Each structure stands twice: as structure tokens, then as C-alpha cells.
Structure to design on (221 residues):
């Protein structure tokens, strides 16, 4: 697959979710995103108010994570977190599912957890991405997670937080795309460090990539 640097940049959610990121670090992330015209900047919700001000006037969107990185907070907490982030300027929300409930077979809870956040996000006409954390899941569980996200009204399914044992894998992205079809977005995230890896994810079916190595990927020869 051949994409220009400008085309590839629009697939990228330029991400800084490090717990020790300072205001200066977040400002640098935003400057890089504007310079390369990425799809978005993805940060922890604390920084969204700053990010939306820094990105004002650009086409780069502010994104906040919810229930991050474990997904084990209560549904009401996730809904509140999403609402606060949107009020502060988030245009998209990336939420983590309750991984333990999925692995334990409690599909009804997982769907209701996603649905509650989706309803809050869509009330404000924003997008919801659902992080399923593929490193904990087998193929059957990945399929189930994707099906539950579709049923709950999510806009995207996303591979990983980047905080688990492994990140996005090409075969998982392909399986997720096969499961959700053409209508839902698929975001590959975690462990993508080169242009070659980025293009492989897109070729497998990813419509968005979550990366912190954005500058390296876009400046590779």
C-alpha cells in the first residue's frame, strides 16, 4: 500500500497518555499534530481543555480516553467521565470495556456498559471508540467484543490501550474488520513504531491508528 505522508497523517491519532506527561509535553504533542495535520490528539481527560484550546483553528480533533487503562471502573463513572471530557472539548471518546466481564462470559453487562457510554457520547453528536484490549483475548473473544460493540452502538472498535503486554497485531485488526464489516471504524493502537507497521495495519483494515511515534513514522524515508 502506498500513501503520501499527508494521507498517512490523517489516519493517525497522535497520542500522549503517559501518566508523567507534563503540560509542556502535551503542548509539544499538539504542536506536532498541527505541524503534520494528524487526525487528532489523544490524551487523558485532564488535558482536554488545554488541548482543545491549542488545536483551535486546525482540523486536528481532541480525543479523551475513558475508563483508562483497565476498564474496570463503574459504568456510571465512565458515563460521567465521557460527559466531562466532551464538555471540556473532546470530539471523540475512546473507552475501555470491562475486560474481566468479557473474559468471564458476561456479555450482557459488557454490552450495557458500552451502550450507556455510547448514548451519552451520541447525545452530544460525538464519536465513541471501544477499546477491547486484544492482548487478553482469544479469537472468539475478539469476535464477541466486536459484536457487542456493534450491538451497543459504538462507532469504532480499537485493539489496545498500549499499556498491556502487547499492542495491535495485523491478524487481530483483520479479524476485527471482518467481524464489524465496512460500516464501523477499526482503530489499531499500541506498538506501532514504523511506517511499514502503520501501512500494514491500514492494509489489514484499520481506518485509524493510535500512535505516539507519529513524527518518526511520518518522517521516515
Amino acid at each position: 500500500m502506498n500513501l503520501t505522508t499527508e494521507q498517512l497523517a490523517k489516519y493517525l491519532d497522535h497520542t500522549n497518555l503517559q501518566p508523567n506527561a507534563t503540560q509542556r509535553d502535551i503542548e509539544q504533542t499538539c504542536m506536532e499534530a498541527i505541524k503534520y495535520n494528524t487526525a487528532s490528539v489523544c490524551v487523558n481527560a485532564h488535558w482536554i481543555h488545554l488541548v482543545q484550546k491549542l488545536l483551535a483553528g486546525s482540523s486536528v480533533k481532541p480525543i479523551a480516553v475513558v475508563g483508562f487503562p483497565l476498564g474496570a471502573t463503574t459504568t456510571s463513572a465512565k458515563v460521567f467521565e465521557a460527559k466531562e471530557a466532551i464538555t471540556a472539548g473532546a470530539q471523540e471518546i475512546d473507552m475501555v470495556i470491562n475486560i474481566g466481564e468479557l473474559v468471564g462470559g458476561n456479555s450482557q453487562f459488557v454490552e450495557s456498559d458500552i451502550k450507556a457510554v455510547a448514548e451519552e457520547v451520541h447525545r452530544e453528536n460525538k464519536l465513541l471508540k471501544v477499546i477491547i484490549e486484544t492482548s487478553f483475548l482469544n479469537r472468539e473473544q475478539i469476535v464477541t467484543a466486536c459484536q457487542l460493540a456493534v450491538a451497543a452502538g459504538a462507532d469504532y472498535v480499537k485493539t489496545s490501550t498500549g499499556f498491556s503486554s502487547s499492542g495491535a497485531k495485523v491478524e487481530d485488526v483483520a479479524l476485527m474488520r471482518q467481524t464489524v464489516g465496512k460500516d464501523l471504524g477499526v482503530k489499531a493502537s499500541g506498538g506501532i513504531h514504523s511506517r511499514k507497521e502503520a501501512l500494514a495495519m491500514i492494509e489489514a483494515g484499520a481506518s485509524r491508528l493510535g500512535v505516539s511515534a507519529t513524527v518518526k513514522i511520518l518522517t521516515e524515508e
